[in-house]
Specification:
This protein has about 110 residues and is mainly alpha-helical. It contains five helices and no strands.
Length: about 110
């Protein structure tokens, strides 16, 4: 019985430690519940090749209720695509933004 409890405890602690290591590695603890433009802009100099920051900035400018700027959103989404052209989320969001603008000349 003691052996079973000890095995279960070791397995549980191993799973918990693995989960904590993976969340730290993925940077989950860096994301706030309400992201701001300033936090994203502060993070860019630390990881300038990370396309996810540019993608999130593009979403921020697209869905910020106080100040929607589709041109700025389009530019940040383009920068995300330059850094990772194989991610379909970036392309789909860029197409949706272009559609919302009405297919007009952006820039």
């Amino acid at each position: 019985m003691k052996r079973l409890v000890a095995s279960f405890l070791v397995l549980s602690l191993s799973i918990l430690a693995g989960y904590l290591i993976l969340t730290m590695w993925r940077g989950v603890y860096l994301y706030l519940s309400s992201p701001s433009k300033e936090n994203f802009l502060k993070a860019i100099p630390f990881t300038p090749s990370n396309p996810n920051l540019y993608y999130r900035l593009g979403l921020y400018y697209q869905w910020n209720i106080e100040n929607i700027d589709l041109n700025q959103s389009f530019q940040y989404l383009g920068q995300a695509i330059e850094r990772n052209p194989l991610d379909q989320r970036y392309w789909l969001t860029l197409a949706k933004t272009w559609n919302r603008v009405g297919g007009m000349e952006i820039l």
